[in-house]
């Protein structure tokens, strides 16, 4: 695979998580970001651990297939690794992420990777959806929407979450996070996130969820969401929730 000449946030996260799927351009960008903000590995470990607890909770509720948007690099405690009995379709809009993901998952018969624009569910390949998220719209599924909301404006995010609500069967779950206002104190790091990046206070997520009903845990700093021990000392950079489309 030709080496990309632009960094990607998804591969920077892989670097911070100690993964193997990033390039020198990503490492350089990760070091520049850390110089402007601070050490990122614990922050992204807390976010990935939230993904793990959320996916396990959804699987324990009886869900056995997942659709992942803005998936990035499908390793380091990602969905199919924490729910190995489930089938998983990872999607992203970045062609490099898609090629990388397809290579990583080439030997898997339970997890696949394809194109999918989260803001238009119709862009997901129906054949892949049918294979990895069987009964889409008729059986409960888990929709994973992490690391993505920060790149969508409020109107687009609310519409997208509502379209997903409409598309899934009752009993389906959504795991979602927003970027808090942590970077406001680090203007240089904030500028590196680009003009489309949106920070939001935690109270803003509830209204954006629309008809999705958050679990009793509500919207919490990700390290605190059903923490399975004392939460690590990490800044509240991300706030997450799991929400359900109620049955009946
Ligand atoms: C910050 S990364 C997060 C990756 C992954 N979810 C994680 O937590 O490691 C954001 C990802 O969202 C993807 N993305 C951006 N806009 C998107 C859209 N409209 N639909 C789907 N993916 C999108 C980017 O290509 C990128 O891979």
Main beta sheet strand tally, sense and closure: 8 strands, mixed
> Hey, roughly how much beta strand do the residues contain?
15-25%
Going by helix content, strand content and strand pairing, the class is alpha/beta
- Summed up, the helix count is 9
Q: Provide the domain count.
A: 1
User: What portion of residues is helical?
Assistant: 25-40%
The CATH C-level class name = Alpha Beta
- In CATH, the architecture is 3-Layer(aba) Sandwich
Distance between the termini: 48 Å
From the alpha carbons, calculate the radius of gyration and give it in angstroms: 17 Å
Unreliable segments of 5+ consecutive residues: none
Order of helices and strands: HHHEHEHEHEHEHHEEE
Mean pLDDT, to the nearest integer, reads 97
The geometry reads as globular
Task: Walk me through the structure.
The longest helix is centred in the first third of the chain and has 20 residues, at 41-60. The chain has helices at residues 9-16, 24-36, 41-60, 79-82, 95-104, 126-132, 154-167, 187-192, 205-209, and strands at residues 65-69, 87-92, 111-115, 142-145, 173-179, 213-214, 220-221, 238-244. Strands 1, 2, 3, 4, 5, 6, 7 and 8 form an eight-stranded mixed sheet that branches. Helix 1 (9-16) crosses helix 2. The chain has a single domain, classed as Vaccinia Virus protein VP39 (Rossmann fold, 3-Layer(aba) Sandwich). It has 248 residues and is of the alpha/beta class. Helices cover 35% and strands 15% of the residues. Helix 7 (154-167) links the parallel strand 4 (142-145) and strand 5. It has nine helices and eight strands. The chain is globular. S-adenosylmethionine binds at residues 9-10, 13, 69-72, 92-94, 97, 117-119, 146-148, 151.
